[in-house]
Amino acid sequence: MPDTLRRIAGTCLFVLATWALRAHAITPDQLPPVDSVFVPSAQYTDGAIEVRWTIAKGYYLYRHRIGVQSDSGFVADALRMPKGDAHHDEFFGDVETYRGSLVATLPGTPQAASTVVTIKYQGCADAGVCYPPQTRKLTVALPADATPAQTAPSRSPFALARGAATAGVDAAPLPQDEAFRFEAIPDTGNRVLVRFTPAPGYYLYRDRTTFRLDAASRAAGFALGTPHWPPARKHHDEHFGDVAVYFDEADLTLPLTRTTTAARTIKLTARFQGCQTDGICYPPMERTADVDLPVGVVGAVAAQDVAPTPSSSGAADNASMTASPDTASTASPATTSATSVAMPAREAPPAPRSVAAGGALSALMLALLGGLVLNLMPCVLPVLSLKALSLAESGSPSVARRHAFGYTSGVVLSFLALGGLALALRHAGRALGWGFQLQEPIVVALLALVMFALGLSLSGLWYAGGRWTGAGHSLTQRGGFAGDFFTGVLAVVVATPCTAPFMGAALAWAFLAPTPLALAVFVALGIGLALPFILIGALPGLAALLPRPGAWMETLKEALAFPLYLTSAWLLWVLGRQRGPDAIAWTLAAAVAIAFAAWAWSRTRHRGRAWGAVALVLALAGAGAALATVHRLPRPTASVAADASHEVFSEARLAALRAEGRVVFVNITADWCVSCKANERAVFARPAFAEAMRATNAVYLVGDYTDVDPVLTAFLQRHGAVGVPLYVVYPRRGESKVLPTLLTPAMVTGALADAAR
Questions:
Q1: Coil, strand, or helix at residue 714?
Q2: What angle do CA 104, 106, 110 make, to 5 degrees?
Q3: Of the given ranges (122-136, 140-154, 401-415, 443-457), which has the lowest mean pLDDT?
Q4: DSSP letter at 731?
């Protein structure tokens, strides 16, 4: 066993030295400038504007994220693009992509000497990191002799929409399928991207459009939210009066709620109506599409956190909308007028893809480093002090090796069990990730009682038998392995309120990786947490430096009870935030029962008195009844209330602030999160933070994740977070920025200053 431990320690040190500098080698911030990867250009040729992208090697563009629109200097028909390469995307599903180069053609009629075309596109690197959506404006010179009188008549709807004279449409009406195209693909697991494409010379009514799911999809737990439409055009229609219509391609997003995270194919039906310009109006039409949804988040998905673009449709945006009860989804007048948005900008993909280039090996190295740093976090220190005490008591390198082996076994197997449970619950939609069990009040209460009971043991009220060998004591008479093992278990349990550096990317990768690789990440976390004790057990020189046992150890043992009492008090405070003061009272009653049971056990275990066994059973039963009562207590009102320094987070408030062009700082926190509380004391409670918020005219939104919250779960997953804390800074314009889990005042003030520019 010593040779084995020595080889493990040597391997870990070598790997850490090799990979420490590469742990963050691939991040979105280190990508080449987007304009050096996707180079757009445009020119007029042969009756059309050609838009060309030169695409660098190792990068690709999404077909469905490309759009081209001209101004009034060019009356355009529908955009034409070649067929792309079939590609199954982790986030968009089955899509088409372009590599090397792309030429898109925008046919139409010149109306001036030049035109400005607005192009939109989004692409990714093969390394696994995506750029945010891009928008560029290019000026295109048009031939002087290509006047409207010299060109063939156009059936483009833009001439009418922009107020130009129209002589009418001579062509016979097209079949419905040709006049109006309908497509639907997954955007994320909780959002569908829908595209309507009217033919040139046709338009679609926005307010006559509804959506519904088939009965099987609804029975499977899927439901539609409010669609997010792009700006529509005001149009006076002889049938419906002033309405909002689309003459050109319209992309909209359709949020979904779901009761399962599993991937599934749903059937989406759109009911809509449109007309031919100066021609016939079609009766209401229906189209159905199969949408292959990837894994998603359980619960409601609120409005997307994008900056709304004011609609150009004016009063038409206030038109009433029709909806089919229960099954149809359409925009409400209030939503449309207040938050009419352009195509929501997709955030860069979450963290799992940022480690994709190094694959599983990078994730394992990050996990190993994260586990090692976890030893320095305040959650683990009380238990580590107990482990250090047991190693010091051992008095010899050989005994130290046995302690290290038992502790490492407990840590690794506990991480493996915790990871398996987290993955299973995540698949079932019951949890997001790291620290999830502390959202359950019964778990918090039970941990508080365990810490209290261990403190009583250190104070000498009770002993489990044998001499002291760690936090668990010796659970058998054959040595201290069981005590060391359960000390490792306890270390893992109390480590979950903390998120150490490097852990976030590794856990994010694990929660989207195949199960065997995901579990390997949790094993690597365990090895990292146990690494200091592995080294002590493997290297005799380190073990020889341990102090010799003596009378001083009894004093140290009793002193170490007080950190455990403080931990128990902190957990009681968390419990009170989750379920109110009644939960604290019932848990304190359970603690008294535990103390009585420990006293009865110590008084009678050597004397064989029956009353002690009866008292022990009754006390434990009383403690169990108190815990059951805690479990049944209702959730109180939200613990985070708005005050002068912050507002309560909501998706609607975030969207409204972004529409106003405000800088927004979002803090998703939890009372059981030790890292969150450390950041609050070190950064958010200081005057420098308040001054930075005032200087940038920023708004501070706080979301409380102490208890289970599906909306916050969706927000966390959308930003690639596997737990709290999550800090996101939204600038006046552009993409949001996620800050590290451990903050400094300079880091936060710098991010706010950048967002205000």
A1: helix
A2: 145
A3: 140-154
A4: -
Does residue 725 have a cis peptide bond before it, meaning omega lies within 30 degrees of 0? yes
Distance separating alpha carbons of residues 568 and 570, to the nearest angstrom: 5
Residues 6+ apart with CB under 8 A from 483: 390, 406, 469, 470, 471, 472, 473, 474, 475
* Per-residue buried b or exposed e for 547-580, using 16+ beta carbons within 10 Å of the residue's own CB: eeeeeebeeebeebbebbbebbebbbebbbbbbb
Rounded CA-CA distance 200/192 in Å is: 25
Structure confidence at residue 6 as a pLDDT band (50, 70, 90): low
- Give, in order, the Cα–Cα distances in Å from 165 to each of 160, 192, 203: 7, 37, 17
By CB atoms closer than 10 A (0-12, 13-18, 19+), residue 541 is: exposed
Per-residue pLDDT tens over the stretch 397-412: 677 777 778 888 888 8
b/e map 620-641, b = 16+ CB within 10 Å: bebbeebbebbbebeeeeeebe
Judge contact between 505 and 366, C-beta under 8 A.
yes
**Integer Cα distance of 552 and 347 in angstroms:** 57
Q: Is there a contact between 635 and 577 (Cβ–Cβ < 8 Å)?
A: no
Say which residue, 541 or 316, is predicted with more confidence.
541
| Domains, the chain | 2-22+360-447+459-560 (no CATH), 33-152 (2.60.40.1250), 173-348 (2.60.40.1250), 647-755 (3.40.30.10)
At 434 the pLDDT is 58
